[in-house]
Amino acid sequence: MTPENHNLFTALRAAFPADLDSTAIETADTATPLHYSWRDLDCGSAMMANLIDALELPPASRVAVQVDKSVEALMLYLAVLRAGHVFLPLNTAYQAAEIAYFIGNAEPALVVCAGKNFGWVSKLAFQAGTKNVFTLNDDRTGTLLQRAAHHSTQHAPAERSADDLAAILYTSGTTGRSKGAMLTHGNLLSNARVLRDAWGWQTAADGGDVLIHALPIFHVHGLFVASHGALINGSKMIWFSRFEPRAVAARLPEATVFMGVPTLYVRLLAEPGFGKEACSRMRLFVSGSAPLLLETFHEFRTRTGHTLLERYGMSETVMLTSNPYRPESARRGGTVGPALPGVGVRVHGDNGQPLPAGKIGHIEVRGPNVFKGYWKMPEKTAAEFTADGWFKTGDVGQISADGGVTIVGRSKDLIITGGYNVYPAEIEGFINDMPGVAESAVVGVPHPDFGEAVVAVVVPKAGATLNGADIAARLKGRIANFKVPKLVEVAPDLPRNAMGKVQKSLLRERHQGLFAR
Ligand code: AMP
């Protein structure tokens, strides 16, 4: 008996529907709609995998990819899996200094970039010793496709064990250098299977799901949670290269599943026509990657009749917890639900001691989904795992008696003022409840007497006028004085990254000299 091939592609391919000529992906924002069949995904990724094989790269080579979102880019991901190499997606927003760091650090044997960036990317890559640089554009042009066109549409996936690397995701790294999280075929497959069951994905035989895919595919949410979800279930995707709320709302009546970061839901709700009618066939709306405002959670339910399902995960671990799929009424806003099957989640104190239910502390996790470590950073990897093998997520939160997890923030965002701990999420919650407030972010900045001082940045709702001193005055008496911000800045918006995460480091920088003597 031949041993089982644990190459993730093999499992995804096995889930393709019997009718390979049915539509796997339909593009929604190309000049004309393009229909890619399951056979197209299979053959297209085979041709690219054969091209990669022909390059005779060393085993487990990194393939760094910075291209605009396209179906061909997804095929390239599948091709890298098939060929047994390591996919390394890069945010399209990264500029030369960042790309130079990633290429220098990961030493990819192959780099694929947008044609318009070939000049500077190839220069950086060749300087770093990379021998192969191809281009791929979002209009199906570029040297990758030209070269792949000469290769066979048949390809046997490389034999891989569950422990072999499939991808490296560089963490967004708001402090210090970004770290490459090494994910294995086993990490990704176990999580894809767990989510398929936990979220009730329906195969074609059960009526079939249709996913609207409007997330970037350089990040865990769009690449793994969304794409794997549809692929391992043989479900069709309606493919948006970028999120545009009106266009997405117009296609929702054809869909059953949508996944978004919280800002996408805020933007959908800002569309006047968006409501129950658009969501009539919808089965599941998933939210994650950043905290969801309670107001968005409630407004979404009122407007659409659907309850957002919040889940929690990260690049290093894929998905960790999820609110229940059924009953929908059990989903609680502002919480991320219990651990997914097979995943362990616990909360420990500053000294590593276990904390009882309801106590806030450091969230630690383990399971088949937890990554292998940080690329070329053994000391950092060792420091992020406990002696008994749990990964320290860097998130702070609590677990209720029924196992539900609530995140209160990143540990590095925790504020210590005059020796007291302040959890930004608590104060943000009070501020967000005030009339006229759209959202807020609370950070700590250096203070000569207190160590750190609490500062809030508050965004007004459209048409509302806010006064920072009034907000601070209203907080007095409602929360302990040490938690009341020493400054409340009213600003038109909060700085966010591509995944909708508020970049608190930028706010800290903005205000760091505020209390300098
Ligand atoms: P990333 O590796 O870019 O996916 O970022 C992971 C981090 O995003 C986690 O460690 C959390 O801090 C945050 N995060 C992910 N999902 C949620 C969620 N549902 N609510 C709040 N924070 C989240």
Keyword list:
Luciferase, domain 3, four-stranded parallel β-sheet, GMP Synthetase, Chain A, domain 3, alpha/beta, 28% helix
Structural overview:
There is one protein chain. The protein contains 15 helices and 24 strands. 28% of the residues lie in helices and 24% in strands. The longest helix is centred in the N-terminal third of the chain and has 17 residues, at 38-54. With 517 residues, it is α/β, with parallel strands linked by helices. The structure holds adenosine monophosphate. Residues 171-172, 220, 288-291, 310-315, 336, 393, 395, 407, 410, 499 line the site of adenosine monophosphate (AMP).
Task: Produce a short descriptive summary.
Helix content is 28%, strand content 24%. By secondary structure, the protein is α/β, with parallel strands linked by helices.
